[in-house]
Design a protein that fits this description.
single chain; alpha+beta; Nucleotidyltransferase, domain 5; six-stranded mixed sheet; five-stranded antiparallel sheet; elongated
């Protein structure tokens, strides 16, 4: 077994950003970044030939790798790693919950080793990204694809699968030319993992602070050439988003870059209907196309009224309206709510002149639309 160590050389300004994010998770000295290389995907039929870790000391971030250079040292490699891991409390990895950690557990059990990993906190950056796949829109979510999206500057592009054959050749011909790609791939994965630390910010997306700084109405023509109106909200956030976010649904559009964003929301200038819930207490007046309470209907001739049904128990109003959606608890953003027709799923509220001038309302509504798009 070979043990390789290295002090990383990371640009101070970028390192400060990374460390500020990490310190919200745990003391830096408690963190252990982990990546493994294996001879296959099945832990029952394959083995681990390389374990790499990043850890923090007062002089900076260090790399340590345990490499099975004989093909027979897996138990020694695992034992050495486990002794070293006892110093840490939090594991950071990419898709390790699905691959690295179960693989390590199985291989340790094969060798009769007791692992402290199960008692450590686990931070899987892949799992943090999972809920936001729709707004990231990447072709896949391999670590190297995500690194490219975040612009980490990685140039090494071989996969762990590609290197299995390289390792097999190395065992038959141990030489630097075959060793370097094995070691450097694992090192690149670990440095890439450190560069992806801003992904931790995505955990705070559901509670992102949004403050509208400017609002305006604009007109555009839709795909059918119809003239439409939209509300454009320019806002600041309380977090710096590490990569641009884009989302669209229900004719709404969201874009966030850095600490600023924009929302485009359709404005509906038309007649809509407010439906009363207790329709049995109402009569419908066909000539006036409206419903009135039975106490008022008592003064209307019988031939001019009929008992209201759920779909005819409404009053009509022409105004400006904005869309809204129930939250996770089924609560609406604003009441009363209007609909275009009884069976239509869309829900709206009246966009009054007072609301147009209310900056706090606009900020709250911007978050409402943002949360809806985030959940799609």
């Amino acid at each position: 077994m070979r043990i390789i160590t290295k002090l990383l050389d990371i640009e101070d300004e970028y390192l400060q950003v990374i460390e500020n994010i990490l310190e919200k998770e745990a003391p830096l000295s408690d963190l252990l970044f982990l990546d493994i290389e294996t001879t296959g995907l099945s832990p029952a039929q394959s083995r681990i030939y390389l374990i790499g870790c990043l850890y923090y000391e007062t002089d900076g971030w260090h790399l340590i790798q345990w490499f099975d250079n004989t093909g027979t040292d897996e138990k020694q490699l695992l034992s050495s790693f486990l002794i070293f891991a006892e110093r840490s409390r939090v594991l950071v990895h990419y898709n390790g919950n699905r691959f690295d950690l179960p693989f390590l557990k199985t291989r340790m059990e094969q060798h009769g080793l007791t692992s402290p990993l199960a008692s450590m906190d686990s931070r899987d950056l892949y799992r943090i990204l999972q809920p936001y796949r729709n707004i990231l829109g990447l072709p896949d979510y391999r670590q190297q694809t995500v690194e490219e999206y975040f612009g980490t500057g990685r140039t090494e592009d071989q996969s762990g699968k590609d290197l299995i054959k390289v390792y097999q050749k190395y065992l038959g011909n141990p030489c630097k030319e075959l060793l370097d790609p094995l070691i450097l791939h694992n090192e690149a994965d670990l440095e890439g993992l450190l560069s992806l630390v801003p992904i931790f910010i995505y955990r705070y997306l559901p509670t992102l602070g949004i403050r509208v700084k400017r609002a305006q109405a604009d007109y555009y023509n839709d795909a059918e050439g119809n003239r439409c109106e939209e509300l454009i909200l320019y806002f600041d956030t309380d977090l710096i988003i590490p990569a641009p976010l884009h989302a669209s649904a229900d004719k709404c559009y969201l874009k966030i870059e850095g600490q600023g964003g924009v929302l485009k929301i359709p404005i509906y200038n038309e007649e809509m209907k407010y439906f009363y819930a207790n329709y049995k207490d109402y009569y419908y007046l066909p000539d006036e196309d409206t419903a009135v309470h039975k106490y008022i209907a008592a003064y209307v001739d019988k031939e001019n009224k009929v008992p209201a049904r759920a779909e005819t128990c409404y009053t009509r109003k022409t105004s400006f309206y904005l869309p809204q959606w129930p939250d996770a608890r089924g609560e609406l953003f604003r009441k009363p709510f209007f609909k275009q027709a009884y069976k239509d799923p869309g829900l709206f509220f009246e966009f009054t002149d007072d609301l147009k001038r209310d900056r706090n309302f606009l900020s709250d509504y911007a978050f409402h639309v943002y949360a809806h798009l985030l959940s799609r």
